[in-house]
Design a protein that fits this description.
Layout: H1 3-23, H2 28-41, H3 46-64, H4 68-78, H5 81-90
């Protein structure tokens, strides 16, 4: 697996984790399980997996630290029932 792909996965996962928290969808464990299984299926090394998860945590924390006003705007724009359904479908095998 090329390292640039790993570098893209981490922030993407972090965003999904942050979105689940912001929207109070309680999908954190499903996100983790889905990606952990996918990492194995695509042949990521343990080091690559660790790097992706570390990047995910950094990105998730960064998004959680944005000002309350921005979080409220993000919540209004991204926490829709359509987005929730799409999020669930995307995590389904």
């Amino acid at each position: 697996m090329p390292n640039p792909v790993v570098a893209v996965l981490g922030p993407s996962i972090g965003y999904l984790l942050a979105q689940s928290e912001l929207c109070q969808w309680a999908l954190t464990e499903k996100v983790r399980t889905t990606y952990q299984e996918a990492f194995k299926q695509i042949g990521m090394t343990p080091e690559q997996q660790a790097t992706a998860w570390a990047q995910a945590v950094v990105h998730q924390k960064r998004l959680a630290e944005i000002p309350a006003e921005a979080q409220a705007r993000m919540k209004a724009e991204t926490c829709t029932s359509e987005a929730h359904g799409r999020f669930e479908r995307d995590l389904s095998p």
